[in-house]
What we know:
This protein is mainly β.
Amino acid sequence: MVGKQNIEARYGEKVKFTKGDPMQFPDFKMTFNGTRNVPVPQYTHGFFVYYDFQIVQNKESQIVSWSSGTGDIAPVSFSVGEKRFQLELGISDTKGQLQSNELVIELGANKVTK
């Protein structure tokens, strides 16, 4: 079943995710929406795979997308309110190798400047 389990999640920890199951972090709720293939003709495999996550805080919503692209696995930065975060998939700077259904959210040190 999709969308049944609400997962309590903490920053800096490995969190298992499945499509449609919300993960409740201290500052926002995050839900994995699935993957999508984006054509890239120059790339040998012909496409990049993007992992799309919906972030919700109060009435604000945004989509954060992560991809390893050509294999340079790096976190994706995003902001919620005045706080910055990093979404890590594949490998984490602090937790090492991640399984294909694991992520780490790191709370950034800098506030968002407008």
